[in-house]
Amino acid sequence: MAGEHYKRGFAIYLKVEKGLSSNTVEAYLDDVDKLFAFLDSAWPGLPIQSVKLEHLSTFINQIVEIGLSTASQARIISGIKGFFTYLLTENITQNDPSELLITPRLKRKLPDVLSVEEIDSIFQQIDMSKPEGQRNRAMLETLYSSGLRVSELIGLQTSHIYFDDGFLRVIGKGNKERLVPIGGEALKHISLYAHHVRVHIPIKQGFEGIFFLNKNGKKLSREMVFMVIKTLTAKAGIEKNVHPHTFRHSFATHLVEGGADLRAVQEMLGHESITTTEIYTHLDRNYLKEVIERFHPRS
Question: Could you confirm whether domain 3-89 is CATH 1.10.3470?
Fold first, then answer.
């Protein structure tokens, strides 16, 4: 098989047409490598145009037998499906043998979610008398108020904060932009940080547009945000596994539990699929039981 030729075309397709990150492209290419190695071993000389569902099913059975987790199986199948979609799009093949491949069902682990009281408790641990304290409060208020990913937070541009309109322009996965509303409390702390702290930081060349800066005038690292949250959580006596994404989970969960439309939450989070957002529909089971007992005619 002309594996390398097809892989080069697939890589360009993923980067240019799908706008995927380098890491995701590498993962997809690695999945295709596994498939080519298996096909070359089991059916030497088999043209890619002759690959059928039974060939792919045999490959999947092998990765199941060697003990790969369902998450790894699902990722590999996703990579293979993407590859054959590319081949079909480019008229390299006339059919897609991966179309009927069954992806294993993944168990969705519900993420830890902070209550409003726990979030307030974390905020109360911040020393607002220090410049970094004012920055950290603005940072965490932004995470919780707008549900940003940590990469979106540390990459936030000053020019992308629209104070008058109450929106942020966010650059998400695959360089996709979205407008996200931000609450008044978060904007208040953002403004305090901007006018009382950030203006006094000697900003290094190349970081002039970045809003949240470290004391050296450079962009914050993901690890820095993680450590700030871990330290504050420990001070608050909260034993949950809290990290930057926990604020995003909490933002989405509190919106959904408050009655927000799931598609609106999907738009704010920047999820391509509504099924990704549906994880936030988990409600307290005692509350659900109470609803059934109060409102169901058979209770």
Answer: no
| Per-residue pLDDT reduced to its tens digit, 113-123 | 899 999 999 99
Give the residue among 7, 44, 21 at the shortest CA–CA distance from 151.
21
Taking the CA of residue 82 as centre, how many other CA atoms within 13 Å lie in the half-sphere pointing to its CB? Answer: 26
Write the DSSP symbol of residue 201.
S
Mean pLDDT, residues 217-238 taken together: 95
pLDDT at 61 over 90: no
Active site residues: 149, 173, 245, 248, 271, 280
The residue among 78, 3, 6 whose CA lies nearest residue 46 is 3
Distance of alpha carbon 149 from alpha carbon 170, whole angstroms: 10
CA–CA separation, 77 and 267 (whole Å): 27
Strands 167-171 and 161-162: antiparallel
Domain-wise residue ranges, the chain: 3-89, 116-287
For the beta carbon of residue 257, count every other beta carbon within 10 angstroms. 15
Q: Which residues of 167-206 are buried (b: 16+ CB within 10 A; e: fewer)?
A: bbebbbeeeeeeebebeeebbebbebbbeebbeebeeeee
Whether residue 80 contacts residue 31, with contact meaning beta carbons closer than 8 Å, is answered with yes
Assigned token pair, 231 = 């330290």
pLDDT tens digits, one per residue of 145-186: 888 999 999 999 999 999 988 899 988 877 888 888 898 899
DSSP 8-state assignment for residue 241: -
Number of CB atoms found within 10 A of residue 137's CB: 22
* The token pair that represents 63 in the structure block: 């990765």
Statement: 116-287 belongs to CATH 1.10.443.10: yes
Provide the mean pLDDT of the chain. 85
Q: What is the pLDDT of residue 278?
A: 58
Q: Which residue has the tokens 């190349």?
A: 206
Non-local (6+) Cβ contacts of 18 within 8 A are: 174
